[in-house]
User: Which sequence fits this backbone?
């Protein structure tokens, strides 16, 4: 009988054992690990569901009509996201309000909030911890005789490490809703919440008043904006800049406001024209901002027209007809869509200048044309983003980097009013930009 090679048998047994061990490790990681992960996720979802149920029940009990403003949850309400969610989530009992984020955001119209100690006590009895953030009321800051009183801006409820944020929305005179920035005071707990993850409070925000509808999400009755996509778009561009009332008052002490009947009548016409332009462009879905002299909003009585800016990518061919239908007459049209387009309209005796801005690497610029010579000019600005502000009871856009924008146009002495101004040489950012060809004049120089 042949001898058995013991070494070969030993090696064969070791190899077989190793293969079996690797198979066990693979099975454990692929199947058992997945089960544990599934259990962990389900536990987190269950905790989030309990938190939301407790909070919304409290809000309903005390008749506080919260509505959902959480960005992640609202994003899931779009049809495309819903279809993708259905493919990925097999536990439909918490598909919207359990977003794997430690925060859920709601909003409340501030006029519906009454400081009820019973609500806060009931929240505490349910296990919630509370952090209240207050700030100055900007609606009073503009009044010389009143310093703005503190108002509630945000409430943060914490339960088992999860945060529910309540954002207070205040009505402003421009017929829009406003919320304040979230600023921690020195004695507040910095670790109370993951503040960088909050959807709201990094800066003040402004919104149109949303229409709300009652729906059922994850088995809970929740109010949401009817037009979710529009609300999400507003939220991305909601940053609001408050008027610098103290600086404005200091300016008016140095340069008293013109209170003559002519100046008062001019401001009335400017307000009417701005509101008309805003309605017309909103109907066309064309965003605009206050530009040039009108951007110096506290000095508007020194201007003789209204200036607005529009990015050329937002130009629409029906803008001329829209302004004509609104009752404005076209005064001149300079340039063309590809280069230095500028429109000017007239309402009563106040001119509305519409400057179109072109983006070029790290700068933006708008053009100017001298009608009698065909000379072209370029006004160069550093790139900027757009924020909301309020002027003459109207929510309007301004460059967020307002000081950079104004300084580029008017120089370091921008705060000193100038009675004499030459648009071809006075601006700090003006550059010669060639001359229109005579063959183009009929198209690029139109005066009415």
Assistant:
């Amino acid at each position: 009988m042949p001898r058995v090679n013991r070494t070969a048998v030993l090696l064969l047994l070791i190899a077989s054992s190793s293969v079996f061990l690797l198979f066990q490790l693979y099975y454990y990681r692929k199947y058992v690990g997945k089960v544990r992960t599934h259990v962990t996720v389900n536990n987190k979802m269950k905790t989030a569901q309990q938190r939301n149920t407790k909070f919304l029940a409290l809000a309903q009990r005390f008749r506080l009509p919260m509505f959902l403003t959480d960005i992640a949850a609202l994003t899931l309400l779009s049809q495309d996201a819903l279809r993708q969610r259905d493919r990925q989530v097999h536990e439909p009992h918490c598909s919207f309000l359990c977003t794997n984020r430690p925060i859920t955001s709601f909003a409340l119209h501030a006029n519906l909030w009454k400081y009820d100690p019973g609500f806060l006590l009931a929240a505490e009895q349910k296990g919630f911890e509370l952090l209240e953030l207050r700030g100055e009321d900007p609606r009073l800051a503009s009044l010389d005789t009143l310093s703005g009183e503190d108002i509630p801006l945000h409430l943060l409820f914490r339960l088992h490490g999860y945060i529910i944020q309540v954002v207070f929305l205040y009505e402003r005179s421009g017929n829009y809703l406003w919320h304040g920035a979230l600023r921690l005071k020195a004695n507040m707990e910095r670790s109370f919440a993951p503040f960088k993850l909050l959807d709201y409070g990094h800066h003040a925000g402004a919104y149109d008043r949303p229409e709300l509808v009652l729906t059922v999400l994850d088995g809970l009755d929740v109010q949401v904006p009817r037009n979710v996509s529009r609300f999400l778009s507003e939220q991305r561009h909601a940053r609001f800049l408050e008027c610098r009332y103290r600086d404005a008052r200091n300016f008016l002490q140095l340069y008293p406001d013109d209170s003559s009947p002519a100046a008062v009548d001019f401001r009335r016409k400017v307000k009417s024209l701005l509101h008309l332009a805003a309605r017309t462009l909103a109907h066309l879905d064309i965003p605009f901002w206050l530009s040039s002299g009108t951007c110096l909003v506290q000095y508007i009585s020194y201007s003789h027209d209204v200036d607005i800016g529009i990015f050329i990518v937002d130009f629409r061919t029906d803008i001329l007809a829209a302004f004509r239908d609104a009752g404005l007459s076209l005064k001149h049209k300079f340039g063309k869509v590809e280069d230095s387009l500028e429109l000017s309209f007239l309402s009563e005796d106040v001119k509305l200048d519409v400057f179109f801005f072109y983006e070029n690497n790290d700068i933006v610029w708008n053009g100017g044309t001298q009608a009698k010579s065909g000379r072209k000019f370029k006004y160069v600005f550093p790139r900027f983003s757009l924020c909301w502000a309020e002027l003459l009871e109207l929510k309007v856009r301004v460059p967020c980097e307002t000081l950079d924008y104004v300084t580029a146009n008017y120089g370091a002495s921008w705060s000193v009013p100038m009675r004499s101004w030459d648009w071809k040489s006075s601006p700090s950012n003006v550059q010669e930009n060639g001359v229109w060809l005579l063959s183009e004049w009929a198209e690029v120089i139109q005066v009415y």
The radius of gyration is 30 Å.
